[in-house]
Amino acid sequence: MSESGADDIRYMRRALRLARRGRTHPNPMVGAVLVKNGQVVGEGFHLRKGEPHAETAAFAAAAAASGEAARGATLYVTLEPCSFTGGGRTPCTARCVAAGVARVVGAMTDPDARVSGQGFAQLRAAGVAVTVGVEEAAARAMNRAYIKHRQTGLPYIVHKAAMTLDGKIATETGSSKWVTGEAARSYVHRLRDRADAIVVGVGTVLADDPELTARLPRGNGHDPLRVIIDSRLRTPPESRAVRVSKVPSAGTLVVTVDGADKTKRARLEAAGAEVVTLPANGTGQVDAAAAARLLAERGALSVLLEGGGELAASFWEAGLVDKALFFIAPKIIGGRAAKTPVEGAGRTAMSKAIELASLKFRRFGPDVALEGEVKEANVYGNH
Asked: How many CB atoms lie within 10 A of CB 171?
C-alpha cells in the first residue's frame, strides 16, 4: 500500500537527517530510507567519496535485517538515484530494480548532466512508481553548493566577516584581534570544517598572519584548502598559512598573476605552497571570476571568503557571492580610515544595493550574526 502524503514527508525528513551526517566532498550528501508496511526496514547515507551510495547502504541494512525486506518496499531518497556506469560500479537505479522496490520517492532531480532525469526515467521504465519533489526545498538547501557547481561550474561562496557595530573590521592601525568573542570564533571553525576552501587576500596574511585552519575541540576538524590571493607575491614564506604543521592538511594555494616574480614564487614553493598564475584583470589584480573557476575545477564546491574588504569587493562586484554571514560585535571604534567588510568602488545609488533574502539572526554570546542569501543567486535554485 502506498504511503500517505504525511508519511512521505516524515520519511523524507528522516532521510535528510541521515544525509547530513555524510562528509561527501565533492559529491552530494544523500540519505535513503526503506519503508515496508509502515515500518522502516533499512536506511543509510553516503558517508564519503568512494563509499557505498545511500541506496546501497539502505539495501544492505534491509538484507542484513530480514533478507528480502526491500522487495515491495518504498525507497525515500534525497537525490535522484544515479543511472550511469563507471569504474565497474552498478548504478543505483539498477540496484533499486534488482532489490524489487515498488516505489521510489525522490526529493529532487540530480543536476548532474549524467543523471538529470534519466534515473527517474529508468525506474519508471522498469515499472517502479516514482514520486518527485517531496521536501525538495530542504534537499536543495542541503546540497546548494553541489547544485551551483553542477549548474554553473562555480563554487558556492559565503562571505564571512566580523565587524563592530559601526561597520569596522579593524582599527585605523590595523588591529583586529579580536572583533568578536569566543563563541562566534568557535562557530567559524565549524564553518571551516565543512568548507572546501578558505579565501583571503595577502593583506589579511600580512596584517594578521592567520593559520586558516579548522580548530575544533580535541584537535578534530577538516582543514580546507587555504587560498591566498596575492597579485605581487607578497606572502611571506614563513607565514602560518603557508607553514601549517597540522596533518592531514589540504595545503596552501597562492594565486597570483602572469609575470609574477620568479624568485618569490620559488621561495613560496620551497616553503610548501603551490603557486598558480592567472591572467590579470584590468587593474593588474587577480581576476576574481578566474580564481573562482580555478577552485571549482579543483573540486572546491563550498568556499568561505574571509577577507579583506578589497578582495571581498572584487567577488561581490563580479556577482560571485551567494551568501553573506556577518558577525556584529557590540563595539564602536570609529576612524575614517578603518577597514570595512566590503570596500572597492561601491554602488552609486541605494537603489543599486545588493539585497539579501532568507535572513537569519543568531546570538553568539554578546555578538549577533546576520545571515542572508543573495537575491540574484535565485537562478541557482538555492533558496
From this structure: 16
DSSP output for 211-224: ------GGG--PPP
Residues 6+ apart with CB under 8 A from 127: none
For 239, phi then psi, to 5°, come to -65, 150
Provide the 10 A C-beta neighbour count for residue 153: 11
State pTM to two decimals: 0.88
Query: To 10 degrees, what angle do helices 309-317 and 288-297 make?
Result: 80
Would you say 107 and 12 are in contact if contact means Cβ atoms under 8 Å apart? yes
Backbone angles phi, psi at 163, to 5 degrees: -140, 165
Q: How confident is the model at residue 24 (pLDDT cuts 50, 70, 90)?
A: confident
| The pLDDT value given to residue 85 | 74
pLDDT at 220: 65
* Angle (CA) 301 92 42, round 5°: 100
Candidate list 43, 55, 135, 306, residue with the active-site label = 55
Q: Which pLDDT tens digit goes with each residue over 51-86?
A: 899 999 999 999 887 767 789 999 999 999 998 876
Residue 373 annotated as catalytic: no
| pLDDT (tens digit per residue) in 124-138 | 999 999 999 999 999
Over the stretch 132-170, which tens digit does the pLDDT of each residue have?
Answer: 999 999 999 999 999 999 999 999 999 999 999 999 999
- What would the mean pLDDT of 238-248 be, rounded to a whole number? 76
CA distance 304 to 196: 8
Q: In what order do the strands lie in the sheet with 367-374?
A: 274-278, 252-257, 225-229, 197-201, 302-307, 156-164, 323-329, 367-374, 356-364
β-bridge partners, 31: 45
Proportion of the chain in helix, strand, coil states, percent, rounded to 5: 30, 25, 45
Report residue 341: phi and psi, to 5°.
Answer: -65, -35
* Residues in CB range of 248: below 8 A, 6 or more apart: 223
Integer-rounded Cα Rg, in Å, for the chain is 23
Query: One-letter amino acid identity for 189?
Result: H
What is the pLDDT averaged over residues 88-106? 91
* Cα–Cα distance measured from residue 109 to residue 95, given in angstroms and rounded to the nearest whole number: 18
